[in-house]
Amino acid sequence: MKKNAAVVTCLTTVIALQTAHAQSASASNSPDHVYVETNIKTADGNSIAAFTRGSHGELTPIAGSPFLTGGAGTQYAGVNVGPQDSDREIISNPEHTLLFAVNSGSDTIAVFKIQSNGALYPIPGSPFPSGGNDPVSLSLVGDTLFVVNKSGDLGRPTSILPNYTALRVHSDGSLSPIDETNNDTSHEFQAKVSIGIGSSPSQALVIPDTHLFFGTDFLTGLVERFKFDDYGKLHQLPPLALPASEFADTTTPRLPLGLWNHPYLPLVYVGFVSDNKVGVYEYDPEGYLKFRRAVPNSGAAVCWLRTNRAGTRLYTADTVTNSISVYDLTDPANPVQIQELNLSGEGNVLQISLSTDEQSLYALSSRGDATIPEGQGNELHVLSIEQNGKVAEIQSPVIFKEPNDTRPQGVAVVPGI
Asked: Which of the residues 46, 112, 211, 242 could staple to 254 if both were Cys, CB 3.0 to 4.6 A apart?
């Protein structure tokens, strides 16, 4: 009863918060900048493709793009699950002055200064060690950068355990280890928490205004739970397996990928990839997760998720069907699917991101299936969002002319300054 009461209490603040966010979103007339990581595997070949967003969502390359990250992209050239399964490869700081991007193939994090026109300049010393092998996902809280090191690049096998690492972000944007604590049971909080080999952790999701951090270990079927202290160090709570009750076929693996939180309520949405469902969980301030329900998805392989600021719509990327699904969150704990839009062309959609004004959704597809001819499928789709929250693809996608063994990853929208 107390948890239900908390949810109802939170609902009473939604209208005021929606208004505040809408005013904040429209306060700047500067255009958004959209960034995609090319993920080119050659030494120092990785880069960030940068675009300016037009008034109708259209994208114009920024002079000087792409901008080299100083590292290498994922080394695996095939299309197996695992290496490309991640989200938030590119993020910015809240002031939109710094951009952070993973170099998955060289174990580093690139840091750029964002210029007023969206151009990127690496800060001195960039890129910086990621604290592990194969960094794939980032999340920033204050001066702490959380990094997911997957250790899952099949192009360079390793015995290094995957981990969740916290790095210190200094005033100039440079990164350094917080300290050397690593699975040291004499310390409740660790700068680095290693997990089982082959786990394939895929995402770092920090819940705003809390000390909670959730992740997904894709290939072991676990939702990871952490608390972090004021120094950014992590305390691992027991991970949670996906509920067996939602997988009637015992031969179907229980695989979680995408994570996203409701903007106002203590709810987290999880992509149940192999069962074509979205799981709904409630959390408390101590990081306890309670499974509420799973709702069906008409697409196949729900991977990455986003909500709008108002908390009225949930968007999912359905990788196998190369489609975007839209859910009505009138009842946030019971999403109802209202649309599935198949994207144009070939490809397998992965990461998605909303524009600042929430009138556009950008969806990045890549060649994730051997039936797609080499050199095809790498596209950034520009979708318009209608007043009812549904999406439409009314523009041609941006096509990435990458080497045949390359699959771009990560899409970030950063407000202009």
From this structure: 242
Q: For position 350, what pLDDT does the model report?
A: 95
Our CA dihedral for 31, 393, 49, 415, rounded to 10 degrees, sits at 20
* Partners of residue 192 on adjacent β-strands: 165, 182
Residue in the block written with tokens 């699959």? 407
Q: From CA 360, how far away is CA 53, in angstroms rounded?
A: 10
Residue of 99 and 20 predicted with greater confidence:
99
- Element holding 2 (H helix, E strand): helix 2-11
Going by C-alpha positions, the residue among 229, 297, 236 that lies closest to residue 269 is: 297
Task: Give the integer Cα–Cα distance in Å for 362 and 173.
Answer: 27
CB 377 within 8 A of CB 367: yes
- Whole-angstrom Cα Rg for the chain: 20
Q: How far apart are CA 257 and CA 136, in angstroms?
A: 13
CATH topology of domain 32-414: Methylamine Dehydrogenase; Chain H (2.130.10)
Residues paired with residue 363 on neighbouring β-strands, in sequence order: 352, 381
The candidate with the shortest Cα–Cα distance to 302, out of 281, 326, 283, is: 326
- β-bridge partners, 364: 380
pLDDT for residue 106 is more than 90: yes
Q: What is the DSSP string of 209-258?
A: TSSEEEEEEGGGTEEEEEEE-TT--EEEEEEEEPPGGG--STTS---EEE
Residue 148, H or E segment: strand 144-149
The domain segmentation of the chain, as residue ranges, is 32-414
- Tokens 């010393």, residue? 125
Alpha helices, DSSP H, located in 12-118: 14-25
Q: Which of 231, 222, 205 is nearest to 306 (CA)?
A: 205
Instruction: Give the model confidence (pLDDT) of 152-164 as tens digits.
Output: 999 999 999 999 9
- φ/ψ (deg, to 5) at 295: -115, 150
pLDDT for 71:
98
Please state whether beta strands 192-194 and 175-177 pair in parallel, antiparallel, or not at all (unpaired): unpaired
- For residue 417, name the pLDDT band (cuts at 50, 70, 90): confident
Closest by CA to 247, choosing from 239, 255, 258, 237, is 255
Residues 6+ apart with CB under 8 A from 70: 44, 46, 103, 108, 110, 122, 126, 127
Question: Rounded to 10 degrees, what is the CA torsion of 389, 317, 68, 78?
Answer: -160
Positive/negative CA dihedral, 211, 310, 312, 390: negative
Mean pLDDT of 114-125: 97
Q: 3-state SS of the chain: helix, strand, coil percent to 5?
A: 5, 40, 50
